[in-house]
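Worked example 2:
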Amino acid sequence: DVEVSEAIDFCRFYPTSMAAFDELKTVSYQPKGIVLVIPPWNFPLAIPVGGTVAALAGGNTVLLKPATVALPVAWEFAQCFWDAGVPKDALQVVCPAERQSLNWLSAHQSVKHIILTGGTDTAFRLLENAPRTPLSAETGGKNAMILTVNGDQDRAILNVVSSAFSNAGQKCSACSLLLVERSTYEDEIFQSKLRDAVLSLRTGGVWDPMNYVGPMIDHKNEKLQYAIDHLEPGESWLVAPEFIDKEGYILKPCVKWGVKPGSYTFRNELFAPLLSVVCIDSLEQGIEYANSSEYGLTAGLQSLNKAERELWKNKIEAGNLYINRGITGAIVRRQPFGGMKRSAFGGGIKAGGPNYVASFLRFKNATAYEIKDVEANYRQAWNNVFSKEEDVSHIYGEENTFRYLPLNSMALRIADGDALNDALLVMLAANQTKTKLTVSLSDKHHQLEVIKAKVATFDGMKLRLESEEDFINTMSTYERVRACSESLSDAVYQKAAELGLCIIDSAPLAEGRIELLHYLKEQSISFEYHRYGSIFEENKC
Protein backbone atom coordinates (compact mmCIF):
# COMPACT_ATOMS: atom_id res chain seq x y z
CA ASP A 1 0.00 0.00 0.00
CA VAL A 2 2.84 2.40 0.84
CA GLU A 3 4.48 1.88 -2.53
CA VAL A 4 1.26 2.07 -4.53
CA SER A 5 0.37 5.32 -2.74
CA GLU A 6 3.79 6.81 -3.45
CA ALA A 7 3.60 5.78 -7.10
CA ILE A 8 0.24 7.54 -7.40
CA ASP A 9 1.70 10.62 -5.69
CA PHE A 10 4.46 10.75 -8.34
CA CYS A 11 1.90 10.43 -11.13
CA ARG A 12 -0.12 13.33 -9.74
CA PHE A 13 2.74 15.60 -8.68
CA TYR A 14 5.29 15.61 -11.52
CA PRO A 15 2.93 16.78 -14.30
CA THR A 16 1.57 19.57 -12.09
CA SER A 17 5.12 20.66 -11.19
CA MET A 18 5.60 21.57 -14.87
CA ALA A 19 3.30 24.56 -14.40
CA ALA A 20 6.07 26.59 -12.76
CA PHE A 21 8.22 26.29 -15.88
CA ASP A 22 5.36 26.94 -18.32
CA GLU A 23 4.83 30.30 -16.66
CA LEU A 24 8.38 31.51 -17.40
CA LYS A 25 8.34 33.93 -20.34
CA THR A 26 12.10 34.40 -20.73
CA VAL A 27 12.89 30.79 -21.67
CA SER A 28 11.51 28.06 -23.89
CA TYR A 29 12.08 24.35 -23.38
CA GLN A 30 11.86 21.00 -25.07
CA PRO A 31 12.35 17.39 -23.91
CA LYS A 32 15.82 15.91 -24.02
CA GLY A 33 14.76 12.74 -25.85
CA ILE A 34 15.30 9.20 -24.59
CA VAL A 35 15.72 8.82 -20.82
CA LEU A 36 17.06 5.52 -19.48
CA VAL A 37 15.55 4.69 -16.06
CA ILE A 38 17.43 2.15 -13.92
CA PRO A 39 15.58 1.56 -10.60
CA PRO A 40 16.46 -0.77 -7.68
CA TRP A 41 14.90 -3.99 -6.43
CA ASN A 42 14.06 -2.80 -2.90
CA PHE A 43 11.27 -0.44 -4.04
CA PRO A 44 10.10 -2.28 -7.15
CA LEU A 45 7.08 -0.04 -7.84
CA ALA A 46 7.38 3.47 -6.39
CA ILE A 47 10.91 4.33 -7.55
CA PRO A 48 10.62 3.10 -11.17
CA VAL A 49 7.22 4.78 -11.49
CA GLY A 50 8.74 8.01 -10.16
CA GLY A 51 11.58 8.04 -12.68
CA THR A 52 9.27 7.06 -15.53
CA VAL A 53 6.68 9.73 -14.74
CA ALA A 54 9.29 12.47 -14.28
CA ALA A 55 10.74 11.78 -17.73
CA LEU A 56 7.33 11.42 -19.41
CA ALA A 57 6.05 14.61 -17.75
CA GLY A 58 8.80 16.51 -19.55
CA GLY A 59 7.77 15.02 -22.87
CA ASN A 60 10.61 12.51 -23.08
CA THR A 61 10.44 8.86 -24.06
CA VAL A 62 11.53 6.24 -21.53
CA LEU A 63 13.54 3.06 -21.64
CA LEU A 64 12.85 1.33 -18.32
CA LYS A 65 15.48 -1.17 -17.23
CA PRO A 66 14.22 -2.62 -13.92
CA ALA A 67 16.29 -4.72 -11.54
CA THR A 68 16.12 -8.30 -12.79
CA VAL A 69 14.39 -9.63 -9.68
CA ALA A 70 11.83 -6.80 -9.89
CA LEU A 71 10.99 -7.26 -13.59
CA PRO A 72 7.50 -8.75 -12.95
CA VAL A 73 6.42 -5.65 -11.00
CA ALA A 74 7.80 -3.28 -13.64
CA TRP A 75 6.08 -5.21 -16.39
CA GLU A 76 2.73 -5.02 -14.57
CA PHE A 77 2.89 -1.26 -14.03
CA ALA A 78 4.05 -0.70 -17.61
CA GLN A 79 0.87 -2.47 -18.69
CA CYS A 80 -1.09 0.03 -16.59
CA PHE A 81 0.63 2.94 -18.36
CA TRP A 82 -0.04 1.47 -21.81
CA ASP A 83 -3.65 0.72 -20.92
CA ALA A 84 -4.03 4.32 -19.76
CA GLY A 85 -2.93 5.60 -23.17
CA VAL A 86 0.85 6.04 -22.92
CA PRO A 87 2.12 4.87 -26.35
CA LYS A 88 4.44 1.88 -26.39
CA ASP A 89 6.95 3.88 -28.39
CA ALA A 90 7.05 6.37 -25.47
CA LEU A 91 7.59 3.74 -22.76
CA GLN A 92 9.48 0.50 -23.35
CA VAL A 93 10.75 -2.11 -20.89
CA VAL A 94 14.12 -3.80 -21.38
CA CYS A 95 15.72 -6.26 -19.00
CA PRO A 96 18.91 -7.91 -20.30
CA ALA A 97 20.18 -10.86 -18.33
CA GLU A 98 23.79 -9.71 -18.38
CA ARG A 99 25.63 -6.43 -17.86
CA GLN A 100 27.18 -6.16 -21.33
CA SER A 101 23.87 -5.27 -22.97
CA LEU A 102 23.20 -2.57 -20.36
CA ASN A 103 26.68 -1.15 -20.88
CA TRP A 104 25.98 -0.90 -24.61
CA LEU A 105 22.58 0.66 -24.01
CA SER A 106 23.70 3.23 -21.43
CA ALA A 107 26.54 4.39 -23.70
CA HIS A 108 24.35 4.70 -26.80
CA GLN A 109 24.30 8.20 -28.25
CA SER A 110 20.47 8.14 -28.41
CA VAL A 111 20.23 8.08 -24.60
CA LYS A 112 20.19 11.71 -23.43
CA HIS A 113 19.83 11.25 -19.65
CA ILE A 114 20.09 8.38 -17.17
CA ILE A 115 18.13 8.07 -13.92
CA LEU A 116 19.60 5.60 -11.42
CA THR A 117 18.63 4.52 -7.97
CA GLY A 118 21.17 1.97 -6.82
CA GLY A 119 24.70 1.41 -5.60
CA THR A 120 27.45 4.00 -5.66
CA ASP A 121 29.67 1.61 -7.62
CA THR A 122 26.93 1.31 -10.27
CA ALA A 123 26.83 5.10 -10.62
CA PHE A 124 30.58 5.20 -11.22
CA ARG A 125 30.30 2.44 -13.84
CA LEU A 126 27.63 4.38 -15.71
CA LEU A 127 29.70 7.56 -15.62
CA GLU A 128 32.78 5.72 -16.83
CA ASN A 129 30.76 4.11 -19.61
CA ALA A 130 29.11 7.35 -20.77
CA PRO A 131 30.99 10.38 -19.35
CA ARG A 132 29.03 12.96 -21.37
CA THR A 133 25.55 11.59 -20.61
CA PRO A 134 23.91 13.42 -17.68
CA LEU A 135 23.26 11.14 -14.71
CA SER A 136 20.72 11.74 -11.94
CA ALA A 137 21.50 9.13 -9.32
CA GLU A 138 20.40 8.46 -5.76
CA THR A 139 22.90 5.99 -4.35
CA GLY A 140 24.11 4.60 -1.03
CA GLY A 141 23.98 5.82 2.52
CA LYS A 142 25.60 5.26 5.90
CA ASN A 143 23.01 7.15 7.86
CA ALA A 144 23.52 8.30 11.44
CA MET A 145 21.02 9.19 14.14
CA ILE A 146 22.35 11.17 17.12
CA LEU A 147 20.82 10.85 20.59
CA THR A 148 21.91 13.50 23.06
CA VAL A 149 21.31 13.60 26.81
CA ASN A 150 18.42 15.99 26.03
CA GLY A 151 16.62 13.42 23.92
CA ASP A 152 13.51 11.47 24.87
CA GLN A 153 15.04 7.99 25.25
CA ASP A 154 11.84 6.00 24.78
CA ARG A 155 10.81 7.96 21.72
CA ALA A 156 14.33 7.74 20.32
CA ILE A 157 14.39 3.95 20.68
CA LEU A 158 11.10 3.66 18.79
CA ASN A 159 12.46 5.88 16.02
CA VAL A 160 15.80 4.14 15.67
CA VAL A 161 14.33 0.63 15.72
CA SER A 162 11.83 1.45 12.96
CA SER A 163 14.50 3.27 10.94
CA ALA A 164 17.11 0.53 11.28
CA PHE A 165 15.07 -2.64 10.86
CA SER A 166 12.02 -2.02 8.66
CA ASN A 167 12.50 -3.65 5.24
CA ALA A 168 15.17 -5.76 7.02
CA GLY A 169 17.44 -2.70 6.88
CA GLN A 170 17.37 -2.81 3.08
CA LYS A 171 16.73 0.90 2.54
CA CYS A 172 19.37 3.35 1.42
CA SER A 173 17.85 5.71 4.01
CA ALA A 174 17.98 3.18 6.88
CA CYS A 175 19.62 4.11 10.17
CA SER A 176 22.81 2.11 10.42
CA LEU A 177 24.68 4.24 12.99
CA LEU A 178 23.32 5.34 16.36
CA LEU A 179 25.58 7.93 18.02
CA VAL A 180 24.74 8.20 21.73
CA GLU A 181 26.05 10.77 24.21
CA ARG A 182 28.17 9.10 26.86
CA SER A 183 25.95 9.33 29.96
CA THR A 184 23.07 7.76 28.04
CA TYR A 185 25.37 5.27 26.31
CA GLU A 186 26.64 4.03 29.70
CA ASP A 187 23.15 3.91 31.24
CA GLU A 188 22.26 0.25 31.77
CA ILE A 189 18.55 1.07 31.73
CA PHE A 190 18.92 2.59 28.24
CA GLN A 191 20.87 -0.44 27.08
CA SER A 192 18.19 -2.75 28.46
CA LYS A 193 15.38 -0.80 26.79
CA LEU A 194 17.14 -0.82 23.43
CA ARG A 195 17.90 -4.54 23.70
CA ASP A 196 14.30 -5.37 24.61
CA ALA A 197 12.93 -3.26 21.76
CA VAL A 198 15.14 -5.02 19.23
CA LEU A 199 14.41 -8.51 20.59
CA SER A 200 10.67 -7.80 20.47
CA LEU A 201 10.69 -7.54 16.67
CA ARG A 202 9.24 -10.69 15.12
CA THR A 203 11.40 -12.06 12.34
CA GLY A 204 10.49 -14.60 9.68
CA GLY A 205 8.94 -15.22 6.28
CA VAL A 206 6.83 -12.70 4.42
CA TRP A 207 3.66 -14.82 4.43
CA ASP A 208 3.09 -14.24 8.14
CA PRO A 209 1.89 -10.62 8.47
CA MET A 210 2.88 -10.60 12.15
CA ASN A 211 6.56 -10.68 11.14
CA TYR A 212 8.18 -7.23 11.18
CA VAL A 213 11.58 -8.25 9.78
CA GLY A 214 11.55 -10.45 6.69
CA PRO A 215 14.19 -11.99 4.45
CA MET A 216 17.02 -10.14 2.76
CA ILE A 217 17.28 -10.15 -1.01
CA ASP A 218 20.67 -11.84 -0.92
CA HIS A 219 22.43 -14.44 1.19
CA LYS A 220 25.88 -13.67 -0.20
CA ASN A 221 26.41 -10.22 1.29
CA GLU A 222 30.17 -10.32 1.88
CA LYS A 223 30.31 -6.98 3.70
CA LEU A 224 27.59 -8.06 6.12
CA GLN A 225 29.26 -11.41 6.75
CA TYR A 226 32.58 -9.73 7.49
CA ALA A 227 30.92 -7.30 9.94
CA ILE A 228 29.26 -10.26 11.70
CA ASP A 229 32.39 -12.39 11.85
CA HIS A 230 34.80 -9.68 13.00
CA LEU A 231 34.63 -7.72 16.25
CA GLU A 232 37.21 -4.96 16.31
CA PRO A 233 38.78 -3.72 19.59
CA GLY A 234 36.09 -2.39 21.94
CA GLU A 235 33.20 -3.91 19.99
CA SER A 236 30.67 -6.35 21.42
CA TRP A 237 27.12 -7.50 20.67
CA LEU A 238 24.26 -5.89 22.57
CA VAL A 239 22.03 -8.16 20.48
CA ALA A 240 23.94 -10.96 18.78
CA PRO A 241 23.30 -11.82 15.11
CA GLU A 242 21.31 -14.97 14.38
CA PHE A 243 20.16 -16.41 11.07
CA ILE A 244 16.92 -18.35 11.41
CA ASP A 245 17.13 -20.18 8.08
CA LYS A 246 19.80 -22.52 6.78
CA GLU A 247 20.40 -20.50 3.61
CA GLY A 248 21.16 -17.26 5.48
CA TYR A 249 18.44 -15.03 4.02
CA ILE A 250 16.68 -14.19 7.29
CA LEU A 251 18.77 -12.38 9.90
CA LYS A 252 17.28 -11.37 13.22
CA PRO A 253 17.87 -7.67 14.04
CA CYS A 254 21.22 -7.28 15.76
CA VAL A 255 23.08 -4.46 17.50
CA LYS A 256 26.85 -4.06 17.54
CA TRP A 257 28.01 -2.04 20.56
CA GLY A 258 31.15 0.06 20.93
CA VAL A 259 31.73 0.72 17.23
CA LYS A 260 34.47 3.28 16.59
CA PRO A 261 34.78 5.84 13.78
CA GLY A 262 36.94 4.47 10.97
CA SER A 263 36.15 0.84 11.75
CA TYR A 264 34.86 -1.52 9.08
CA THR A 265 31.28 -1.53 10.37
CA PHE A 266 31.28 2.26 10.76
CA ARG A 267 32.43 2.91 7.19
CA ASN A 268 30.60 0.33 5.08
CA GLU A 269 26.98 0.26 3.96
CA LEU A 270 25.79 -3.23 4.97
CA PHE A 271 22.17 -3.10 3.74
CA ALA A 272 20.94 -5.46 6.44
CA PRO A 273 19.24 -5.42 9.88
CA LEU A 274 22.45 -4.54 11.74
CA LEU A 275 22.65 -1.39 13.86
CA SER A 276 25.99 0.00 15.08
CA VAL A 277 26.08 2.03 18.31
CA VAL A 278 28.83 4.60 18.85
CA CYS A 279 29.66 6.54 22.01
CA ILE A 280 30.12 10.31 21.65
CA ASP A 281 31.19 12.93 24.19
CA SER A 282 29.13 15.78 22.75
CA LEU A 283 26.77 16.71 19.95
CA GLU A 284 29.61 18.46 18.17
CA GLN A 285 31.64 15.25 18.20
CA GLY A 286 28.62 13.32 16.92
CA ILE A 287 28.25 15.74 14.01
CA GLU A 288 31.96 15.37 13.25
CA TYR A 289 31.67 11.58 13.26
CA ALA A 290 28.56 11.59 11.07
CA ASN A 291 30.09 14.02 8.58
CA SER A 292 33.25 11.91 8.31
CA SER A 293 31.31 9.44 6.17
CA GLU A 294 31.69 9.64 2.41
CA TYR A 295 27.89 9.40 2.23
CA GLY A 296 25.28 12.05 3.03
CA LEU A 297 21.79 10.73 2.42
CA THR A 298 19.65 10.91 5.59
CA ALA A 299 20.49 11.98 9.14
CA GLY A 300 18.58 12.17 12.39
CA LEU A 301 18.70 13.99 15.72
CA GLN A 302 16.85 13.03 18.90
CA SER A 303 16.89 16.09 21.16
CA LEU A 304 14.36 18.31 22.93
CA ASN A 305 16.89 21.14 23.15
CA LYS A 306 16.30 23.95 20.65
CA ALA A 307 19.93 25.10 20.58
CA GLU A 308 21.09 21.55 19.83
CA ARG A 309 18.58 21.24 17.02
CA GLU A 310 19.73 24.49 15.41
CA LEU A 311 23.41 23.53 15.70
CA TRP A 312 22.83 20.10 14.19
CA LYS A 313 20.59 21.37 11.41
CA ASN A 314 23.19 23.86 10.19
CA LYS A 315 26.25 21.60 10.53
CA ILE A 316 25.16 18.12 9.43
CA GLU A 317 25.96 17.13 5.83
CA ALA A 318 23.00 15.21 4.43
CA GLY A 319 20.20 15.72 1.96
CA ASN A 320 17.28 14.70 4.20
CA LEU A 321 17.28 15.73 7.87
CA TYR A 322 14.90 14.33 10.47
CA ILE A 323 14.40 15.68 14.01
CA ASN A 324 12.67 13.63 16.74
CA ARG A 325 11.26 11.10 14.28
CA GLY A 326 12.44 8.21 12.10
CA ILE A 327 14.79 8.87 9.21
CA THR A 328 13.05 6.80 6.52
CA GLY A 329 9.80 7.14 4.59
CA ALA A 330 10.17 10.35 2.58
CA ILE A 331 6.90 11.52 1.01
CA VAL A 332 6.48 13.11 -2.42
CA ARG A 333 6.45 16.94 -2.24
CA ARG A 334 6.37 16.91 1.58
CA GLN A 335 9.92 15.55 1.90
CA PRO A 336 11.70 15.57 -1.48
CA PHE A 337 14.37 12.88 -1.41
CA GLY A 338 18.04 12.91 -2.35
CA GLY A 339 21.44 13.10 -0.73
CA MET A 340 24.81 14.80 -0.82
CA LYS A 341 28.40 13.65 -1.29
CA ARG A 342 28.59 10.00 -2.45
CA SER A 343 24.86 9.55 -1.88
CA ALA A 344 23.95 11.57 -4.97
CA PHE A 345 25.29 12.10 -8.47
CA GLY A 346 24.16 14.86 -10.80
CA GLY A 347 22.81 18.35 -10.36
CA GLY A 348 21.57 18.00 -6.77
CA ILE A 349 17.86 18.05 -7.69
CA LYS A 350 15.67 15.94 -5.39
CA ALA A 351 13.18 13.31 -6.48
CA GLY A 352 9.64 14.26 -5.50
CA GLY A 353 10.61 17.92 -5.38
CA PRO A 354 9.53 21.02 -7.32
CA ASN A 355 12.50 21.04 -9.72
CA TYR A 356 13.02 17.37 -10.56
CA VAL A 357 11.23 17.35 -13.94
CA ALA A 358 13.34 20.33 -15.06
CA SER A 359 16.37 18.00 -15.01
CA PHE A 360 14.99 16.28 -18.12
CA LEU A 361 14.30 19.41 -20.16
CA ARG A 362 16.47 21.54 -22.45
CA PHE A 363 15.95 25.23 -21.78
CA LYS A 364 17.11 28.11 -23.94
CA ASN A 365 16.75 31.87 -23.80
CA ALA A 366 13.56 32.89 -25.57
CA THR A 367 14.34 36.61 -25.76
CA ALA A 368 17.32 38.91 -25.99
CA TYR A 369 18.50 40.30 -22.67
CA GLU A 370 20.44 43.11 -21.07
CA ILE A 371 22.86 42.30 -18.25
CA LYS A 372 21.14 44.74 -15.90
CA ASP A 373 17.84 42.93 -16.51
CA VAL A 374 19.51 39.57 -15.78
CA GLU A 375 20.83 40.88 -12.48
CA ALA A 376 17.32 41.98 -11.51
CA ASN A 377 15.87 38.63 -12.63
CA TYR A 378 18.43 36.65 -10.62
CA ARG A 379 17.83 38.81 -7.57
CA GLN A 380 14.07 38.30 -7.85
CA ALA A 381 14.46 34.50 -8.20
CA TRP A 382 16.75 34.47 -5.18
CA ASN A 383 14.43 36.57 -3.02
CA ASN A 384 11.21 34.83 -4.03
CA VAL A 385 12.36 31.20 -4.24
CA PHE A 386 15.89 30.21 -3.35
CA SER A 387 16.60 32.25 -0.22
CA LYS A 388 13.56 30.89 1.62
CA GLU A 389 13.11 27.84 3.82
CA GLU A 390 9.45 26.97 3.36
CA ASP A 391 6.94 24.42 4.60
CA VAL A 392 4.55 23.70 1.74
CA SER A 393 2.52 21.04 3.59
CA HIS A 394 1.53 22.79 6.86
CA ILE A 395 0.76 19.63 8.82
CA TYR A 396 -0.23 20.22 12.42
CA GLY A 397 2.34 18.64 14.74
CA GLU A 398 5.27 18.60 12.34
CA GLU A 399 7.28 20.86 10.08
CA ASN A 400 8.51 19.74 6.66
CA THR A 401 10.71 22.49 5.26
CA PHE A 402 12.69 22.69 2.05
CA ARG A 403 15.70 24.91 1.47
CA TYR A 404 18.59 25.60 -0.91
CA LEU A 405 22.24 25.68 0.16
CA PRO A 406 25.12 27.22 -1.80
CA LEU A 407 27.89 24.95 -3.05
CA ASN A 408 31.13 25.20 -1.11
CA SER A 409 33.27 25.17 -4.23
CA MET A 410 32.42 25.39 -7.92
CA ALA A 411 34.49 25.91 -11.05
CA LEU A 412 33.66 27.71 -14.27
CA ARG A 413 35.92 26.41 -17.02
CA ILE A 414 35.90 28.83 -19.96
CA ALA A 415 36.77 27.34 -23.33
CA ASP A 416 38.34 29.40 -26.11
CA GLY A 417 35.14 29.73 -28.12
CA ASP A 418 32.80 30.59 -25.26
CA ALA A 419 30.89 33.86 -25.41
CA LEU A 420 31.84 36.50 -22.87
CA ASN A 421 28.20 37.15 -21.91
CA ASP A 422 27.71 33.45 -21.09
CA ALA A 423 30.67 33.53 -18.72
CA LEU A 424 29.33 36.69 -17.13
CA LEU A 425 25.92 35.07 -16.49
CA VAL A 426 27.67 32.27 -14.59
CA MET A 427 29.57 34.78 -12.48
CA LEU A 428 26.39 36.71 -11.72
CA ALA A 429 24.54 33.52 -10.74
CA ALA A 430 27.32 32.31 -8.45
CA ASN A 431 27.55 35.72 -6.82
CA GLN A 432 23.77 35.86 -6.24
CA THR A 433 23.66 32.39 -4.65
CA LYS A 434 26.82 33.00 -2.55
CA THR A 435 28.48 29.97 -4.13
CA LYS A 436 32.27 30.12 -4.06
CA LEU A 437 33.29 30.20 -7.72
CA THR A 438 36.71 29.73 -9.31
CA VAL A 439 36.96 30.94 -12.91
CA SER A 440 39.45 28.82 -14.84
CA LEU A 441 40.75 29.61 -18.32
CA SER A 442 43.90 29.56 -20.41
CA ASP A 443 46.33 32.45 -20.08
CA LYS A 444 46.13 32.70 -23.88
CA HIS A 445 42.35 33.24 -23.97
CA HIS A 446 41.46 36.01 -26.42
CA GLN A 447 39.21 37.77 -23.85
CA LEU A 448 41.57 37.29 -20.91
CA GLU A 449 41.86 40.91 -19.81
CA VAL A 450 38.11 41.52 -19.97
CA ILE A 451 37.38 38.38 -17.95
CA LYS A 452 40.04 39.35 -15.40
CA ALA A 453 38.38 42.71 -14.93
CA LYS A 454 34.93 41.11 -14.54
CA VAL A 455 36.12 38.59 -11.92
CA ALA A 456 37.73 41.41 -9.93
CA THR A 457 34.32 43.04 -9.47
CA PHE A 458 32.96 40.09 -7.44
CA ASP A 459 33.96 39.63 -3.79
CA GLY A 460 35.56 36.27 -3.06
CA MET A 461 35.61 35.06 -6.67
CA LYS A 462 38.89 33.49 -7.76
CA LEU A 463 40.67 33.45 -11.11
CA ARG A 464 42.97 30.63 -12.19
CA LEU A 465 45.00 30.88 -15.37
CA GLU A 466 45.78 27.29 -16.27
CA SER A 467 45.92 24.82 -19.08
CA GLU A 468 43.19 22.24 -19.45
CA GLU A 469 45.59 19.62 -18.13
CA ASP A 470 46.22 21.69 -15.00
CA PHE A 471 42.47 22.23 -14.58
CA ILE A 472 41.90 18.48 -14.74
CA ASN A 473 44.43 18.02 -11.93
CA THR A 474 42.47 20.41 -9.68
CA MET A 475 38.94 19.15 -10.43
CA SER A 476 38.82 17.06 -7.24
CA THR A 477 38.64 20.29 -5.20
CA TYR A 478 35.25 21.27 -6.67
CA GLU A 479 31.69 20.13 -5.89
CA ARG A 480 30.46 20.91 -9.39
CA VAL A 481 31.78 22.27 -12.69
CA ARG A 482 29.98 24.80 -14.90
CA ALA A 483 30.79 25.11 -18.58
CA CYS A 484 29.21 27.47 -21.09
CA SER A 485 28.97 24.83 -23.80
CA GLU A 486 29.78 21.21 -24.59
CA SER A 487 33.19 22.19 -25.98
CA LEU A 488 35.31 20.85 -23.10
CA SER A 489 37.45 17.91 -24.12
CA ASP A 490 36.69 14.25 -23.50
CA ALA A 491 39.55 14.22 -20.97
CA VAL A 492 37.65 16.67 -18.74
CA TYR A 493 34.51 14.54 -18.82
CA GLN A 494 36.48 11.37 -18.17
CA LYS A 495 38.09 12.95 -15.11
CA ALA A 496 34.69 14.13 -13.90
CA ALA A 497 33.38 10.56 -14.29
CA GLU A 498 36.29 9.23 -12.27
CA LEU A 499 35.50 11.74 -9.49
CA GLY A 500 31.71 11.42 -9.68
CA LEU A 501 31.62 15.13 -10.49
CA CYS A 502 28.72 16.78 -12.31
CA ILE A 503 29.47 19.04 -15.28
CA ILE A 504 26.67 21.44 -16.24
CA ASP A 505 27.35 22.20 -19.91
CA SER A 506 24.09 23.74 -21.10
CA ALA A 507 24.22 27.36 -22.26
CA PRO A 508 23.73 29.76 -19.31
CA LEU A 509 20.24 31.23 -19.03
CA ALA A 510 19.04 34.73 -18.27
CA GLU A 511 16.17 33.19 -16.25
CA GLY A 512 17.22 32.88 -12.62
CA ARG A 513 14.46 30.41 -11.71
CA ILE A 514 16.35 27.82 -13.83
CA GLU A 515 19.95 29.03 -13.93
CA LEU A 516 20.39 29.46 -10.16
CA LEU A 517 19.53 25.79 -9.58
CA HIS A 518 22.97 24.84 -10.93
CA TYR A 519 24.76 26.65 -8.08
CA LEU A 520 22.74 25.20 -5.21
CA LYS A 521 21.96 21.91 -3.49
CA GLU A 522 18.56 21.05 -2.06
CA GLN A 523 17.84 19.94 1.50
CA SER A 524 14.67 18.65 3.20
CA ILE A 525 14.14 18.98 6.96
CA SER A 526 11.38 17.15 8.87
CA PHE A 527 10.75 18.09 12.49
CA GLU A 528 8.14 16.27 14.56
CA TYR A 529 7.35 18.66 17.40
CA HIS A 530 4.56 16.76 19.09
CA ARG A 531 5.34 14.28 21.88
CA TYR A 532 3.05 11.28 22.15
CA GLY A 533 0.23 13.29 20.62
CA SER A 534 0.71 16.39 22.82
CA ILE A 535 1.53 19.52 20.83
CA PHE A 536 3.25 22.48 22.42
CA GLU A 537 3.00 24.90 19.54
CA GLU A 538 4.38 27.89 21.43
CA ASN A 539 7.94 26.57 21.64
CA LYS A 540 7.61 23.34 19.65
CA CYS A 541 9.10 21.09 22.29
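The CA atoms of residues 224 and 378 lie 49 Å apart. The longest strand covers residues 398-406.
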